[in-house]
Amino acid sequence: MIALAQAWRAGLTRRTQRAAMAREATRPAEAEPPEHHEFTVRELIRMAQSARAASESRG
Q1: Of 8, 12, 43, 59, which residue is least crowded by CB atoms under 10 Å?
Q2: What are the 10-residue block averages of pLDDT along the chain, 59 residues in total?
């Protein structure tokens, strides 16, 4: 029974690996860039500082 279970697991592992390889093969080489830009925290801080500096220079 133990040998049967081990053989079954080995077959399952091989099938899983083949499925993963097939998914990788069908995936495009380069994914399309997202339509929107996700800002990082650093970018948001810079934008806020720039906006504050611009508003202070006006007034």
Answers
A1: 59
A2: 76 79 73 71 92 84
C-alpha–C-alpha distance, residues 35 and 16, integer Å:
33
- The one-letter amino acid code at 30 reads E
pTM: 0.36
Distance of CA 5 to CAs 1, 13, 18, 33, Å?
6, 12, 20, 45
Look up residue 30 and give its two tokens.
């380069």
Give the residue carrying structure tokens 């077959």: 11
